[in-house]
Amino acid sequence: MVKNNQPDCEMLKGTLDMMILRSLVGGDAHGHTIAKVIERTSEDVLEVEQGSLYPALHRLEDRRWVSSYCGPSENNGKAKFYRLTAEGRKQLVRETSRWRQMTRAIGLVMGEEGGAQ
Amino acid sequence: MSWLRFFRCKRSDAEFQDEIEVFLTEETADNEARGMSPGEARRQARLKFGNAQKVRESLWMQNSPLLLIHVGHDVKYAFRTLGRTPGFSIIAISVMALCIGAATSLFTIVRTVLLKPLPFRDPGRLVMVYEHHRGTEANTPNFSYIPVAPADFYDWRSKTNGFEDMAIMGYTGGNLTGERGELPEAVRAAAASWNFFRLLGVQPALGRAFTESEDRPGNTVVMLTWSVFQRRFAGDATIVGRQVHLNGRPFTVVGVLPSWFTYPDAGIQLWVPYQASATPEFLGHHDWHQSQVVARLRPDVTLVSALAQVSAVQYQLHLQYPHDPVNEDVAPRSLNEDLAGNVKKPLKLMLFAVGCMLLIGCLNVANLLVARGAARQKDVAIRSALGAQRATLIREQLTESVVICAAGGLGGILLSVLATKFLAHAWKDLPTAQSIHLDGAVIAFACLLMFAAELIAGLLPALSTTRKTMLKALQTSARTGASSVSRTALRQSLLTLEIGITVALLVAAGLLLKSFLRLRSADVGCVTENTLTLQYSLPEKKYDTPEKVNAFNEALLERVRTTPGVRSAALGNTLPGAGYSGDLVFTVKEHDPLKPGEDMPGAMVCWADPDYFSALGIPLVSGRFFTNDERVTRSYKVIVSRQLVRQYFHGDNPIGKHLHVPAHFHPGMPNDVDYEIVGVVSDTLYQVGKEPAAAMYFPILEGNTGGANFQMLALRTASEPLQFSVPVQKWIASLDPELPVSEVRTMNQVIGESLVNASLCATLVLAFAILSLLLASVGLYGVLSYLTAQRTTELGIRMALGAKRGQLLQLMLVDGLRPALFGLGLGLVVSVAATRVLQSLLFGTRPLDPVVLCGVIATLFAVAVLACLVPAWRASRIDPMWALRTE
Q1: B34–chain A Cβ distance below 8 A for any pair
Q2: How many CB pairs under 8 A join A and B?
Q3: Residue B595 and residue B650: Cα distance in Å, rounded?
Q4: Which CATH entry fits the domain spanning A2-85: 3.20.20.190, 1.20.1250.20, 1.10.10.10, 3.10.20.30?
Q5: Cα distance between residue B526 and residue B618, in whole Å
C-alpha cells in the first residue's frame, strides 16, 4: 500500500485509492505523476510503492472511477493517462467525508478539541 | 477482477510494461534534474520502482479468476498425466462409459415404466380397482388381482360415491374390412364405457368420444387409434362420420384418439363402447371376470375410505350369490403397476445387476488409480516437501478421476442412447415402450452417477496417496526392501469387495441361465416339431349359426387333411404354449355340495375337434376322444385334463361324472345342463414356465364357443411346416375372401416368442456378470503385477539367499489368491441372501442350485488363478542380480 517513512503510520492503509482519486482532481496524469503528486503534497512523508500503485489504478479503472487513454508524456514517450470519471468524483466525495468523520472521531478520542484538523 | 482484462491479459501486460518504461523515463529525468549522472539517475529510478516482475505478477493475479485458473491447471495436468499412459486412460474411460451407459439405460426404462405417471389428467388420483379373493395377503407373489365382472362394476358405480367416477374396459377383437372390399385385417380392439376417456382426461384428436346413449348393446360406433388412422386410413380426417366394417357390420367412426394415447398397449387398434361389444345377459353377470376398472378418486376422499365403500358393496354381492364365483373383496392397483406387473421384477433385477457392475467399475478405476498413486509416490513426497498442501494434491488427483469419469459419462450417455433403443425394441411386453427416451431427468441421473463414481473412484486413492506424512513418504520412497503395507491392504480390500460382488452377480446370472435352459427344454405336452399354427376368427354376422361355423371349419379341415404333405390337422380355440384362454368355475354333480366358504373348482376352458388330441400328440389317459357325432347336435360331452382329475377327483374315476357350469356358458339353454366327462387327456402347458392348469375341453364342432369365435388351426406336416403357410392362407381365402388370417407361425416359434423375455433377461444379466468378471480379473492382475514390481528387490534377496523359483511362484500365487478367496466367501454369503429375491423369477431351479454354485466357484477360481499366474510367473523368473540392482 503506502510505504511510510515513519514506522507507525499504519492507519494510512486503505487510503491510497482515495489519494489517487484526489490527485487526479487537478487534471489527468500518468502513474509517475500521480506518485509524485502524492509524495510532494504529503511533504515527502508518504512514499508510494509502485507495487501498490499500479494494481490500485487497475482496480479503480475496473470500478469505473477512473478511465485511461494514451497520450504523450513530458519526455516525448507514449504514456497511459488516467482521468477521473464523474463516478470517481462522487466516490471521492464519499471517501473524503468518511475520512473527515474518521479523523475527527479519532481526534476527539485523542483529546484534540474540534477534531484532528 | 475484470473479465475484459483477463481475456486481454497479454495486451494488458504489454500496456503495463509501457507504463513502467514511462515511469522509469520520467523518474530518470527528474533525478537528472536533481543533478545525478545519467547512469546513477537510471539506477535510482529502478531502485525506486522496485521489482517490476513482482508488480506484473500481482497485477496478473488481481486480473485473473484464480479459482478457474487453478482448476484449469489441474485439468491440464490431469490431461497430461492421462495422456502419458494412454492404455490406462482408455481402459478406465471405457470401463466408466460401459458402466454409466448401462446404468443410465436401465434407469431410463425403469423410470418410464415404473416411475413416470401415465400421461393422463391428474394421474395421482387414478387407480385400478380389481376384485380380490380374500385369503391371500397383499405383497405376496400369489396375491391375485381378479378382473371385474360387468354387473359388479355397475353396482359399484351406482352404489358408492367415494370415487369421482369409475369406468370399465375390456379387450375384444375382430375383422376389420373397408367399405369397398379392402384387404381384411384381424385387429385387437378394446371396449370402454362411455365415461372412460372423460375420466382419463383424453381429448380425441378428431371427432368426439362416445356418449352415454351410445354405450348400449348392439350399438355400432367406433373410435380409431392414431396408428390405425394413419396406417389404414392414411390420416384422412374425413373418416370421422364415415363407416368401417367390423366383423362384417358397419360401424360409424365418431372420433380418432391422439397419437400419444397408446393405453393399455400400442397393439390396440380400435375402441368400441363397452356395452356395444356385449349382450344384455353378459352385462348382468357377476361371475364373468373379464374386464378392468379404472377409477378417479374424489379430491376430498381418501383411497382407503373410497375402497371401503366398494368393498362393502362387493361383500354384499358375494353373500347374495353364494354359489357363483363372486369375490368378497376388492383391491386397488396403480396404473403403472398394472401395466408393468410382468416386467417389474426382471427390471428391478437388472437395475440391481447394473448397479453392481457400476460399483465394480468404480472400484476398479479406484484400484487402478491407487496403483498410479503408488507409482507417483516419490513425486508427491517431493512436492509436499517443497510445500504443496495436501488439499492441492488431493484436488489434483481428484481432477484426474473427474476427467476420467466425465469422459466416461459422456461416452456412457451416448452408449445409453443406443442401448435404450435396443432394449425398448427387444423387450416384448414392456409397457409404454414407445415413450422411452432420454430426457433431462435421465441426463441428470447420469451426471449424478458420474459424481458418485468420481467420489468413489477419486477420493479413495487420493486420500490414500497423500495420507502419509512427508517424512514417512520420503522414507518409503527411499530404497528399502519392504513394500508399502498400507496401500497394498487398501487395494486388497477393494479387490475383495469387487470379487464378492462379482460372485453374487455370477450366481444370479447362472441361476437365470439355468432357469432359461430349463424353460427351453420344457415339454409343453404335445408335438412341437413340424407344426404350423394360425389363427382366424369367424365374424358373427356372417356366421350366425353353429351350422355355418361348422360348415366353414369342416370344409377347411377337409381341404387341409387331404393335402399331400400334411399328416394331420387340429382345430381348437387355443393350442399348448399359446397362452391362457380363460377359465370357468364348475361343480361336480356327483360330489357333495360345497361347504360354505369352500372355493368353487375352476379350470381353463378349451374347445377341440375330434382329431385335436391325436393330431397334436396329446396322449389319452382314459376314456375316449370326441367322436364325429358330437357336433351341432348338443351332446354335452367334455374331456378333462389329468391335472383337473388330480385336483378335484382325489382318486375317483372321473369318466361318466358330470360337470355343472354357469349358465352364461351356454346362452339360450336351460341352466341345469351338465356335461358328461368322456375322457381324460394328459396335461399340456398353456404357457412355458407356468405350472399346467386344470383344463376342460369342449367339442368345437358343437358350434358353441361361448361367444369367442377365434379358431386356431395346427397342421402337422411331413416336412418344413412354413412352406404351407401361403397355401393355407389361400385355401382360407378361397373359402371366404373376407376372412383375415393372423399369427401364422410354427409351434416352435410360438414357444420361442413366449421365452423372449426370459432369454433377454438371462442374457443381459449374464452379460453384466461376465463384464464384472472381466473387470475383477483385470483388477486382480493389476494388483498382483503391482505387488510383483514392488517386491522386486525383496524377491531378488530371497533368490540370492537360496529361494527356489517354485517357492517364489507359490509365494506370489498365495498372495494374489488370498483376496480372491476372501471375495469368493463374501460373495457366496451375499448370494445366499440375494437369491431368495430371485426365487420367483426362476423356473425349475432352486436358488441354491449346487451346479450353478459350483460352476461359479470354479469359474471364478480359474479366472483368479489365471490372472495371478502371469505376474507370479514373471516374479519367479526374475534374474536375482538384476532384481538387486533395481530400485
Answers
A1: no
A2: 62
A3: 17
A4: 1.10.10.10
A5: 5
B580 and B686 in contact (C-beta within 8 Å)?
yes
**Chain A interface mutation, best of B26, B48, B56, B61, highest count of A Cβ atoms under 10 Å:** B26
pLDDT tens sequence across B707-755: 556 788 898 888 888 888 888 888 888 888 878 888 888 888 888 877 8
Question: What is the average per-residue pLDDT within B209-235?
Answer: 89
Pick among B8, B12, B23, B24 to test the A interface (most A CBs inside 10 A): B23
Residue numbers in B near A74 (CB within 8 A): 26, 29
Which of B19, B42, B44, B49 should we substitute to test contact with A (largest number of A Cβ atoms within 10 Å)? B19
Mind listing the pLDDT tens digit for each residue in B588-623? 888 877 776 666 788 888 888 888 998 888 999 999
Chain B CA closest to residue A55: B59
Q: What is the pLDDT of residues B770-808, one digit of tens each?
A: 888 888 777 777 777 777 777 777 788 888 888 888 888
Integer Cα distance of B246 and B173 in angstroms: 9
Q: Considering CB atoms only, which of A51, A55, A73 is closest to B26?
A: A73
Q: How far is CA B15 from the centre of its chain?
A: 65
By CB neighbour count within 10 A (0-12 exposed, 13-18 middle, 19+ buried), where does B243 fall?
middle
The reply to whether ipTM tops 0.85 is no
Question: What pLDDT is stored for residue B662 in this prediction?
Answer: 75
Kindly indicate the confidence band of residue B432, based on its pLDDT and cuts at 50, 70 and 90.
low
- What is the structure's pLDDT at A8? 40
- Residue among B26, B27, B62 whose CB faces A58 most closely: B62
Chain-chain contact of A58 with B63 (C-beta, under 8 angstroms): yes
Q: Which of B388, B383, B402 is nearest to B461 (CA)?
A: B402
Question: How many beta carbons lie within 10 A of that of residue A105, not counting itself?
Answer: 12
Q: Which residues of A touch B6 (CB under 8 A)?
A: none
Render pLDDT for B156-194 as a digit per residue (tens, 0 to 9).
999 988 899 999 998 887 788 766 666 778 888 899 999
Please judge whether A31 and B23 are an interchain contact, meaning their C-beta atoms are less than 8 angstroms apart: yes
Distance CA B812, CA B327 (A): 69
Question: From the list A35, A36, A77, which residue is nearest B21 (CB)?
Answer: A77
Chain-centre distance for alpha carbon B179: 42
Residue B627 in 3-state DSSP? coil
| Domain ranges within chain A, ordered by starting residue | 2-85
Measured between alpha carbons, how far is B858 from B2 in angstroms, rounded to an integer?
65
A102/A95 Cα distance (integer angstroms): 10
In chain A, which residue's Cα lies nearest the Cα of B4?
A62
Q: Determine which helix (DSSP H) or strand (DSSP E) holds B533, and give its type and residue range.
A: strand B531-537
Domain parsing of chain B, residue ranges: 3-64, 66-120+343-478, 147-326, 497-521+753-887, 539-738
At B524-560, the pLDDT tens digits run 888 888 899 998 888 777 787 778 888 888 888 888 8
Question: Which residue of A lies nearest to B61 if distances are taken between CA atoms?
Answer: A55
A58–B55 CB contact, under 8 Å: no
